[in-house]
Amino acid sequence: MSGSINDTHTRTLTRSCKVLLDHTAGTRDRSFLRVDVGKASYCCPVQTSSYHVLTILYPVSTTQYPSSSLLHSSIPNTSRSVSTVNTPVEETFNTLKMKLDRLGRVSRSDLVRAVGRLEPHRDQLSDGQCCWLMELAVRVARGEFRPCGKLLNRIWQLTLSRPNAQVTLEHIELYLEACQLTETPCTLKEMTEVLERHDLEVSGRVLGLLLAVAADMEAATAILAAMKERGVPASHDTFAQLLRVYASSGDESGVESVEEAMRSVKMERTSSTFAALTTGHAQAGHIAAVEQTIDQASRVGVAFSQGQLAKVLFTLAKAGHAGNNFANLEWVIKLLVQNDARQAEVELSHLALKLIHCGRPREAFHLVHHLPSLRTNTHLYTNATLYVQEAVRAHTDPEIVIEVCHGLEEEDISQFGVLVALETALRESRVQLAWTLLQALKERGVELREHYFWPLFHSAAGDTQTLLEVVKRMLDLGVSAGVETLRDHLLPELPSTSTNPSLVCRQLHNLGLAPNATATPMLATLIRKNAFDAAAKFVADTKTSFSLAELTPTLASAWPSSPRVITTLLATLITRHFQSEQRGSDQTQDTKKEDWGGQFLLDMAASRRGLGVTQINPLFQELNKNKIGVSELSLELVSERSNLAIQEALRSSSGLVLDPALGSPPLEKEYNILPHPRKMSVEELGDHLVELDAKGLNQRGTIRRLILSQATTANTTSPPPTTSNISAKPVMPTTTPAAPAPASTSTSEVILGLAHRASGEGMKLSPGMISSVLKAQINSRDLDAATDTLTELHALHPTFHLDHYKVIDLCTLMIDKGQGTEAVKTLRQHLLVEVKNGTRDATKTYPKQIRRNCRNLLVASALTGDYSQTRDLLDLLLTRGLVTPDTLIMGALVKCRLASGDLAGAVTETEEIVEQHKCLPMAVETLINLIHSCGDDGRENKEGEAWTLVQHMVDIIASHSSTSHAHHTLLFACLEGNRPIFAARIFKNLVGKLNRQRIRRQVERYGQTQQTLPLLHLLAASSSPHAALNVTSRQHIYSTLLEIYAVQGEVDKGLALWTQLQEEDLPPSPAFLSSLSDLLTAHGRAVPFQIK
């Protein structure tokens, strides 16, 4: 010992600072380790069998250590640390040491994280720590299939760039060994500079490793010269590397010279020299030479190892010499399997992963197809998952990803390759690849689900345009955005959700989402963001219905934050819910109302915060103020799920809310996990049918019920008429509401598929089921099949009464297909049969839903221009009481006249309808067509006939309403008919008579229908100094235009409105400036003004 230290301190220090390091055995003597503690130093014996090394926390002089020691002052023992706070360097090495102790390995990601933490503290690293990092890099490179070259260079730069770094030959040898494993180039010149900088002499091992990484003949020649100059003897490895370099360069004479040199020194050719030569030929693409070398080695009794054959296979694939249909790889794979089939699978799997990250995915998946273990579990989702995931992580071209996934399906390896690729692309934020894969799934008929698109929403958080584009593409792929998608994933990411929820809803509606589909998730999002004032305003402004079932859990969770506002919202929603139910029902039912107050109470008890004892009385008082009752059943359910304190509080305060007239909470039925098939939803019936089919049980009852359930929602929905075959006057805006959307084609296809399945099962369809099939065929617009089904229904069940909905929709389809005469005949026969069978009740009032179907029928007939046909249909419907004469129904006759070009007939028809039925249909549309028949500047083109008709039409409107009403209607017709000159004249004549309230209502209508042209004409017509519109009215027009541009994303047009306001010296309203600011911000544009 060169210093003195007492035995007790030695034992304590040895016990507390000992670290086990697993490293490769070296040639130096590691039986003693010299440790310096301050100025004292001593030597400690080290067990060479387990290689224990002491590590201490005191200042250490690392320069006096032998270079063979791996850690000189680095990793403190994590179990008993002398220091209370570790530095970032110590913490990093502690983490790596812990992973080695517990897992026996360190992964590439572990090492990447460690290097990232160490780089800012490189001045605190010791030489031993850098040497240990390099050893870990060698370990990782041996077993890692991902590229490690960048990681190796970072560790090497970390080693060289430290202040006062003392790089040793061990550092350099480890670095060169890692370069060989990662195929990272390194030249003699670079190493010479490092050696000279640190006063080191090049060793034979360094030169040998440099030769192993030599990229070409020039580099190899320079290294050979250095070896000769220093007297380094040639070894098998030297000759092997020379053979590799010469063969890869295509220098056959060089190969022969090396072989001659080996023979001259009587050096036997081994598997390493044969393998190096074969690898060189593979690199050059000399397939014949590769086969010849392997055959020559076999003849002399030299066998290639599995690793050597794998190296040849990898080189062929990576260099692009796989051959046609991968023929050059096949025979090497065959050799691998012949040597050792089990080890061959391991090698092929590793090579496939490496090739994926080398940019050779096709070659990689060709190797995957040879893995026998993948053929035993082809039904598993995880089969071949790793290879598909790595193909995505390696940024493989999307078309190649789809190609290799389809290859896995064709080879019966995995049927879920594209789904796995999509999952990985979404996780790795590969957006473009994800869209390509979604399109590929759609084209292959795979059902796309909503949650596939959730990561796409989160990846575009805050970007309004990108988020709306995701919604649009989602809808284009046939996937509808449900409540969960909008509430949890889209709306929270839109920046305008809290500030302008109505604008966001209009934007989504403009993309194709129904208004009632966005209202509920928007309200839930506002509540979750604690934007209670905005939520209350949104409910007041929104006319569509809300889903209480989706909102009560959200309201319950937010109640403690704002009890009064939440309770008021709940009361408003419950009232609107019951009003909606009353409007939708035909007659009053003697049933108890649903207990939504009790459901709110149950949701509050089940929320994360729970229902506290102190909350019960304030909650019940708020419910009482808002007249929200709770049923006895709900109170019992909450009591059963609560503790004694809450039960007592419920009993003492229950009188405030208890309402015996209420029924059960509506969502409690969801707790029934296995409902009876009569109570199952469509989705549950579908799952039940799959279960019965798998068990081989009778499916007839379930099929029958599923057909009826699928058809129930579509029975009263009428497909809109098509106008593709109609030639009429220019299409004008119509006041007739748009026809409802048809039932989804997928539902019709399901019904038809179930009917076909029922026929295959030998089932006899009931008349109700046949009528459901008929409705599905109508929705699918298959007229021939629907006609056959109707004939079959009448033949098999002559007494069955088919409802009016289906017959009217069938007649509408007939008219669309050009069979108007058959439509009239079919409707007349149906109504006559109804009278003959005695099913017609003269006092019966038909529900409003049937009028919508009748209106669609009349519109379809009117668009054909056949007046007699339209009149016959209308008379039939009026006679049987299916419709009543109102503006919409009688408008079909006027529309028919306009479609046929009979303007005089349209005016006459309007006059007769006003006299007989006291209603005024299609006044604006008629005036638009009449004005279009006049000249642009007011000159008649039909000798005054057109203007005479205009004046007559105005007189008809005046007789029905008033002269002022007629003039305003003519004004609106000029605005919508693109006649601004006429509109300006009328506006001038209305000075002192202008009805500003009606103008405001019309402006709001234009805003709802997004008609910008009439609004622009209105601004132009009212710009005269004598115009009757005041500042407030013009500001309202500008604000309405801005709202339309905001929904359409027209930023430049919105800015133009602001400029036009300034030119008119018209002060913009605060709401206008706020909306324009939101529009500019959402599209990343600068806001050129400040809002006070």
Automatic annotation (TrEMBL):
GO terms for cellular component: mitochondrion; nucleus. PPR repeats lie at residues 1034-1068. It comes from the Eukaryota. InterPro entries: LRP130, PPR_rpt, TPR-like_helical_dom_sf. Residues 709-745 are annotated as: Disordered. PROSITE patterns: PPR. Residues 733-745 have a biased composition (Low complexity). One of its GO terms (biological process) is regulation of mitochondrial translation. GO terms for molecular function: mRNA 3'-UTR binding. This is Leucine-rich PPR motif-containing protein, mitochondrial. It comes from Petrolisthes manimaculis.
